[in-house]
């Protein structure tokens, strides 16, 4: 993990007039994380129980961590992961926190196709932006069978048919009250504390 993401302060500059912005890297060192927490890098996209969200909003340690991450480079990538990492932070009382090693934590929140040899079969459409696959029609058969709740990413300008097909599939599932087809899987994962 790149510890520089949270060892120094980062500032966001937003120019409202020109509708632009950028991140300012500083040499200002941050204090260590609050409550002796060990920072964990993880996914910025997650699925949480209501109990977890209520805890994160009210718990002093969770709120102190949120205040601490505000001037880090990618707070969304380590705030949630740290709160869920009971392996490295056993003092946390996170509802549904993961007790296993964080690198072994299964994830079903988001399906993504990175531009890497490991994910080479995840992008049939073959278009990458910032090393992330933009899914197209050729990717739909795989996406329909995936367990993840979110597929990242589609671009209506690049492949409007793929976008519309996914939109129609979700609409049809809702109208026909099919609901979540993989509910037993999600229940099993929730019981494991993932």
Automatic annotation (TrEMBL):
<dbReference type="Pfam" id="PF02485">
    <property type="entry name" value="Branch"/>
</dbReference>
<keyword id="KW-0735">Signal-anchor</keyword>
<dbReference type="InterPro" id="IPR003406">
    <property type="entry name" value="Glyco_trans_14"/>
</dbReference>
<comment type="similarity">
    <text>Belongs to the glycosyltransferase 14 family.</text>
</comment>
<dbReference type="GO" id="GO:0008375">
    <property type="term" value="F:acetylglucosaminyltransferase activity"/>
</dbReference>
<keyword id="KW-0808">Transferase</keyword>
<keyword id="KW-0472">Membrane</keyword>
<dbReference type="GO" id="GO:0016020">
    <property type="term" value="C:membrane"/>
</dbReference>
<keyword id="KW-0812">Transmembrane</keyword>
<keyword id="KW-0325">Glycoprotein</keyword>
<keyword id="KW-0328">Glycosyltransferase</keyword>
<comment type="pathway">
    <text>Protein modification; protein glycosylation.</text>
</comment>
<keyword id="KW-1133">Transmembrane helix</keyword>
<protein>
    <submittedName>
        <fullName>Uncharacterized protein</fullName>
    </submittedName>
</protein>
